[in-house]
Amino acid sequence: MLETPHITQSAPQQAAVIHLTIPRDQIRAVMGPGIQEVIDTVVAQGIGPAGPVFSHHFSMQPDTFDFEIGVPVSRPVAPTGRVKPGELPGAKVARTVLHGGYEALPDGWGQFMAWVDEEGLPKAPDLWEVYVKGPNLDPDPSTWCTELNQPLLG
User: Which region is the signal sequence (predicted)?
Assistant: First the structure.
């Protein structure tokens, strides 16, 4: 289920991130290990996670994803392996929340982008998801919540 979209201002959040450019069909294979790597790093450094995991997509071509997996942190992460300092940007965004399993994300994004287009909102090229509640908190996908954010221009 998709909540009614709205416009809001997000605050910038310092983060620990891993940047990936991968074939689209590898997303499920890389997300879990990438998330664990980021979390292990920030826990070892005593700086987080200071909020839920997110993925910040810079480009989503038909066959390739260019994105970061990250978590907010309480202070900058010391680069370790693939984990680097980053930021989830502050921006004016169109936002909604998807309730349910991750398999509903493509349709949820489709409905959300249709709303953004119907409203005539000028989209920035990036977007992000915040995994507010997921399998790390409850194995039942019906309880999961994913925040969808489309930054807006202007």
Answer: none
